[in-house]
Amino acid sequence: MMVGTVGFGVFRYFTGSLGMVVDPPHFEAKHxxxxxxxxxxxxxxxxxxxxxxxxxAISNGITAxxxxxxxxxxxxxxxxxxxxxxxxxxxxxxxxKVQAVFSEEETVISQLARTIYxxxxxxxxxxxxxxxxxxxxxxxxxxxxxxxxGALHAGDGFLPRQLTYRGSRLVYSRGIVSLxxxxxxxxxxxxxxxxxxxxxxxxxxxxxxxxxQAGMARxxxxxxxxxxxxxxxxxxxxxxxEKGWRYRMLINGFGAVCTAVxxxxxxxxxxxxxxxxVLILTPLLVTIFFSIHHHYKRLAKKLSLDNFGVIxxxxxxxxxxxxxxxxxxxxxxxxxxxxxxxxxxxxxHVTIEPAEAEKVRxxxxxxxxxxxxxxxxxxxxxxxxxxxxxIAEVEKQRQPGETITIVVPEFVxxxxxxxxxxxxTADLLRSQLKRQHGIVIINVPYHVHEEADEH
Length: 455
Known about the structure:
Blueprint: H1 2-14, H2 38-49, H3 56-60, H4 69-98, H5 108-116, H6 122-155, H7 173-189, H8 194-224, E1 231-234, E2 237-240, H9 245-269, H10 271-303, E3 317-323, H11 329-341, E4 345-351, H12 354-367, E5 372-377, H13 384-396, E6 402-412, H14 416-419, H15 425-433, E7 439-447
């Protein structure tokens, strides 16, 4: 539709039947320019280049191409550039001839289309509908490419590893959800204003263009200084001498300079409109990425089996501590499991109500199979703190080769509604003890099936 519109508009222009925009939207000039300075030209150049963004979608999605991926992606990029360039030049030419104006009330394409087609008829509606579909697809591009790009970065250890996992639909679900949350926050903060959101987008895009092209220029420089037949393996690529490296290095270097100029101009001219957010956020994100990367490297180094030596001897025995809030079938199931681990078992009950504690003690004498029980007084009616204090005292007396195992009876609710009615002691203990060495927490779940009463 756009090719047909531009072609018909050019035909009407050369036949002298194009005319001007009828009833154009109101245009309010905030600043009247008397002198065109180099900076004004650079500003116009930077604004125009935002129409060229989108080509990065191909580079982000190279992994989705069939082999040979680089060749197929390159051909796609060339076709995309030709289509984009020809339509952009055609629309720019016709916009000047019909004197369309910038307005947030009506787009330039709408003004141009109704001028070319002589009103808002069927062809006009088809073009606007096609534009709407394209914009929907353009918004979807990020949800196709960011999860894939995030998975690549996560695979290299610069983002959380969870982004590398595929969901049941074989897509990177967590990347899609993350992007949806971030995009929603940006839309809310900037009140869905395209004018205010574009600087955020454009600076990031042209920064990535600059870095990637500068990296390619450096890569060609490395290739040019290799001897023929020599290969150098780098992370993600293999370098070997190629003819014409100077020509390619100049192209990428010139591209890096152009995109860097656009980025700087955007940062300066759009600083108050929101660009300052990107200028602060980008270094912060890079710092976060490298912090994540260093964390994964440190962790891998500590867990590595290189130079590990012999396997340390296994713990010789378990010392089991079993918190008991009441004596019931779930408690006895946990006790049976604890007996499978060790004969050194201590049941611990926190005394909050003396009368209730006495009932627990009597029941334990009947059902506790001779296992000793320690009653911990809690004058301030605390539950977790006395148990933690007791475990700390036991840990101080731990013998070599001894593992302290906390066996916790855990009631498992049949549904989430009844789950909130019960205190999950196992989770509370785990959150407090998981950072301590030599302590193992074991949940022994017990299920109670609630059957409907029969009348």
